Amino acid sequence: MAKLSAELEKYFWAEERSSDVKLGDILELTGERIFGFLLVILSLPSALPVPAPGYSIPFGVLILLLAVQMIAGAKIPWLPEKMKKGSMKLETVQKFIKAGNPWLKRIEAITRPRMTYICTSVPGRVIIGVAICLMAISMMIPIPGTNTLPAMGIFITAFGLQEDDGFISLAGLVICLIASILSTSIIMAVIWGGSSLLDMIKDSLGR
Known about the structure:
Blueprint: H1 4-14, E1 20-22, H2 23-26, H3 34-47, H4 56-71, H5 81-84, E2 87-89, H6 90-110, H7 117-120, H8 122-139, H9 148-162, H10 166-206
Antiparallel strand pairs: 1-2
Helix pairs in contact: 1-6, 3-4, 3-9, 4-8, 8-9, 8-10, 9-10
């Protein structure tokens, strides 16, 4: 099986493409590893340490949809035709892949089939699906600090999933756990801060 980084380089640079890239077109690359592949691709823009404004929410919705289907035991994901026809500019996709491929290659260098039951068993896929659901919801929250780390957790977990490398997926789940704790702390701080500010305003008006 060809490495994902090589397939992406071939697909988006070596072969001629239109100026817009549709999600349905990318599905041609997936084969049997469709869930892991799609989750890797959709989490990549938000997982990179570069600005990706506007992508966390729509990609988070797609990731959530895929994760729910994983939990339900689906072998092939269902995506609405409207989502399949959704497109991005080719140069935008190339920018993200150019930034992300060095990371892909580093992970590929240490990836091999091991602890495969984590990626292939029903309990393992359910646990992965639940973790990715939670991270996708976090990605959709418009608060700084709740997007990048959850997306990184999804990216690493999904990369292990598509390569049947349970060790890598397990590492991704640990990142998901850390991201969950941090995101919850950030959300609680924002809520508490907002409540305190509201109380101060009420006190000022009361006087």
